[in-house]
Amino acid sequence: MSETTTPPQTHPLVDGTVGPGCKKVDPIVVADGVVRQFGGLTAVDVEHVEIPRGAITALIGPNGAGKTTFFNLLTGFDRPNKGRWSFEGQSLAHMPSHKVARRGMVRTFQLTKSLGRLTVLQNMLLGARDQRGEGIFAAILRPLWKAQEEANTVKADTLLARFKLDAKREDYAASLSGGQRKLLEMARALMSDPTLVMLDEPMAGVNPALTQSLLDHVLGLKEEGMTVLFVEHDMHMVRHISDWVIVMAEGRIVAEGPPETIMQNQAVVDAYLGAHHDTDLGTLTGQQVAQIHEEAASEVEPEPSDAQGTTTDASADARTDADREGER
Ligand SMILES: Nc1ncnc2c1ncn2[C@@H]1O[C@H](COP(=O)(O)OP(=O)(O)OP(=O)(O)O)[C@@H](O)[C@H]1O
Fold this sequence. Notes:
It is a single chain. The protein has about 325 residues and is an alpha/beta fold. It folds into two domains: about 190 residues, P-loop containing nucleotide triphosphate hydrolases (Rossmann fold), CATH 3.40.50; about 60 residues, no CATH class. The chain is about 40% helix and about 20% strand. It has twelve helices and ten strands. The termini are far apart. Bound molecules: adenosine-5'-triphosphate. Adenosine-5'-triphosphate binds next to strand 2, helix 1 and helix 12. GO terms for molecular function: ATP binding; ATP hydrolysis activity. It comes from Agrococcus carbonis. Pfam families: ABC_tran, BCA_ABC_TP_C. Keywords: ATP-binding, Nucleotide-binding, Transport.
């Protein structure tokens, strides 16, 4: 009797064989040996990963897998214990977040950081790159930055119109719904003309009425030539808009592949859904995955929150947004 073997998988984005840590034909980010520990807990332990340029990549995994921590490390909002990574071929390790953004790698936050007491327009202007009026000499030489400020305002207005937030221009950001804040985050990120846009749970707290619009905006970023990397639990979004999916569990990259195959991968299903391991991820709607997460969450003790705005706290706040959205 002859044994049946699965032939090695290939993919146009991949140089070689598809698998965890596989090489990409044209990587925009390459990370090696990135480790982040919190006390005795290893939150991130990524041996090797490459993000393909010009594609939409989803980073998925169960709660606590290390996705947000990995985002924070790549973008300079946190420091690793060890490891190195490059963006566009240049090392970014130890580079502070504002310099990372200036290089063209911008991110949004799971906890929307739109400054509530600023207007929508003011939030947008904060996202602009190289604001000349910030230096003392430039502040004295008003004409130098006046023209730039005007150009930034025109750019902000164009983006606000594109994201259908123009009617909210003068409103305080705090008055926006959860979904509108997500749109503002994305629009503000575009103020700096990024090459790589990193979105942390873009669907969290978004009203179903805004879901399609948000998906279309993310697809629009790719059409404009940007690379997108997003963390998301919403399997509908992962399945429908991503070109590539990377799966993390317990800090490591455990699987990679195109969405249609990754969601039927047994290791992924086991890592992601735990007790629901007999379920095909690819057949689940976002709502069903959310329900499974809720059931799982109700089986564990709630984590204590603190007042410092830590990652744990941020997740709690995102849920509050979702709740508020649901009440509307
Ligand atoms: N500042 C911190 N201090 C201590 N532990 C932390 C800190 N930030 C994250 N952790 C821990 O590191 C692990 C990874 O957390 P992380 O938020 O990166 O996971 P995640 O995959 O983004 O989860 P989720 O999907 O729930 O957002 C978790 O066990 C978390 O409790």
